[in-house]
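Title: [Solved] Catechol 2,3-dioxygenase-like lactoylglutathione lyase family enzyme 3D structure

Original question kept below for reference.
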Amino acid sequence: MRVKVVSIPVREQEEALQFYTKKLGFIKKQDIPVGGGNRWLTVVAPEDPEGPEVLLEPSPNNFEPSKTYQEALFDAGIPCTEFYVDSLDKEYTRLNDLGVEFTTTPTDIGPAKIAILKDNCGNLIQLVEVK
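Solution (posted by the thread starter after getting help):
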């Protein structure tokens, strides 16, 4: 078994694509219309274009329990996923300069350093630097 695709619930796929590519630095991998104005829309890390894909999933617009789950995670301050970075301080500075809002600034938690950001799609994303 291996991970090929993980999904992140988003309300507006085009806004999500812009955020995940222009701010977070991912690159678009797949963009396939699937009907109803929805797309099979994935992004990947530029360092690993054949690696795991992040599906920008429009489920909150099409499945009420997904919207409820997304809102509950956000309201509780729980990230929906995490991305690993080589230097959290460097990424924090870069993203902060791009106007990305953080709910948690870089914090040392022993074996790792974390920060939590808001994407523009209703999610919290945790960045992790393993020491």
